Amino acid sequence: MKALCWHGKNDIRYDTVPDPKIEHPRDAIVKTTSCAICGSDLHLYDHFIPGMEHGDIMGHEFMGEVVEVGSENKKLKVGDRIVVPFTIICGECDQCKRGNFSVCERTNRRKDLGDKAFGHATAGLFGYSHLTGGYAGGQAEYVRVPFADATHVKVPSTLTDEQVLFLGDIFPTGWQAAVQCDIQPTDTVAIWGAGPVGQFCVRSAVLLGAKQVVMIDNVPERLLMAEAGGAITINFDNESVIERLNELTQGKGPEKCIDAVGLESHATRSIDAVYDRVKQATMMESDRPHVLREMIYVCRPAGVLSIPGVYGGLVDKIPMGALMNKALTVRTGQTHVNRWTDDLLRRIEEGQIDPSFVITHTVGLDQGPEMYQTFRDKLDNCIKVVLKP
Amino acid sequence: MNYLEHASTPRQSSLAPSDKLARGLGFYSLGLGLVELLAPRAMTRALGMEGSENLVRAYGAREIASGIGVLSDNPVPALWSRVAGDALDLATLATALSDDNPKKGNVKIAMAVVLATALVDVMAAKSSTALHVRPRRMPIVDYSDRTGFPKPAEAMRGAAKDFETPPDMRADIGTGQRLEPMQRDLVSRTPANTDPVGQPPAMNNQVGL
């Protein structure tokens, strides 16, 4: 079969690889009908996440048709149409029972690596390094889904792929980011990063009733899309984020802040961004945490920082004094996808939201390698790429 | 929906030839920089520029900085810095072209090498800029109709009011009895951190699943 494989920094190739097989009775094999490039795939593309190996199949946003099921998998049958959550879950461990699916205790088959990197391993993820299990990803014609009897969302045929594909990651990720803020009708929610997750953060915060939603970025077309979703926008190339946020909140700062950027922030005109660039390039720091610093600084005391943006390792110069003294609550984590999907699928079916709004490019899987570059470099007004194997 | 105009023909790899060239230049920069930094006397002797060792060391540090930049995730500025560095190298070498320099021939060879390298640097910088840098006057597609909602966004504010934040994600854990939005005006009339009977509230760590 064909798949997009990682071959080193900035080197994604359209390769021929062996077809996947059932390896465990709970498995299923899915024929991919649609998959997508996620912003967090770019951290692998830029090689900021350790633990990738040559030939690893990329991708963790995908859906398709079940073509084979393992003998113990009683929940799925051949022909089922499913979206596959990016977090692989057993559904039975203590964390899964609590709904903390992204830290499932059983699905990371490279627990040894996860333990070394993070102290305790997190769940297995598709196509996201060997720290999270080294599972083959979904940017491929076929995918083996481990623990498939728990790791799936059945979707009705009445909805298109484009409407449901993002249930596997970015929609619940944006939703969880907003939910973690515990949004109240009086809240101003400031969101950094108008990429796909940021766009879903905006819609989620609006649906959950925030008084004001503010989007911070410097990419004009992305700000336009955020504005369409109900956000007040701040282009940090043109105005001061801190001054504008204070102006919008009578000098008190936003109650809730969401970092939808993660480890590769591009705040080109700030001193700390230059500092991070130098430290990252010289391998003295793995992540560029400009957004974290700014959120801590602008957030209203006793506010909440929600961090869906992916961080991979070590950061520097985090203003812990401000974080502690302002009594800020920090909520973060990979998304507990299955915790939200039933509710979000219902909202899609009821027409409350149509997630396909975010798609700007739909191309064949063979165009994946160049789309990684187009998406990374923000060329061609690219916001979200869907690939059709 | 397909707005793809940038890409025309499928590429086998996302790594373009210009990226590979840039990477090669990055390693070349690191190598040359190390030599200049660690063995400046060998270079000044070969070029008849004795006494300029500290200058060569400084140029070595510059080369290393350029090399690190070229090998980073944003190589374009560092590639252009290499071009500027080439110009500086040529200007410095030109000062050693005096007739009393017995190594004048070596200087000419060095200048030819730097010139050739400069051409490669310009080529790499221009092609990387074209490939990776977002044009300043790039036409912007108007996504202002991409609401994702069936109605204008303002009409959708609070449409998910049926959703209840799970207890483990509430912002007021341990700070008081949770009130529904319509009860919020009561908060101002209730002493902080007390429940209606005046007792501190119990922590609720149960996950409602």
Automatic annotation (TrEMBL), chain A:
What cofactor is this protein dependent on? Zn(2+)
Which keywords does this chain's UniProt record carry?
A: Metal-binding, Zinc
Protein's name in the database: Threonine dehydrogenase-like Zn-dependent dehydrogenase
InterPro entries, per database record: ADH-like_C, ADH-like_N, GroES-like_sf, NAD(P)-bd_dom_sf
Does this UniProt record's set of keywords contain Hydrolase? no
Would the keyword Metal-binding be found if you checked this record's keyword annotation?
A: yes
Give this protein's Gene Ontology molecular function annotations. Answer: metal ion binding
Q: Which residue intervals define the domain Alcohol dehydrogenase-like C-terminal in the entry?
A: 196-274
Q: Where is the Alcohol dehydrogenase-like N-terminal domain?
A: 25-152
Source organism of this protein record: Pseudomonas duriflava
TrEMBL record, chain B:
Q: Which domain of life is it from?
A: Bacteria
From the UniProt entry, list the residue stretches annotated as the region Disordered. 188-209
Q: What is this protein called?
A: Cyclase dehydrase
Organism of origin: Pseudomonas duriflava
Recite the lineage of the species.
Bacteria, Pseudomonadati, Pseudomonadota, Gammaproteobacteria, Pseudomonadales
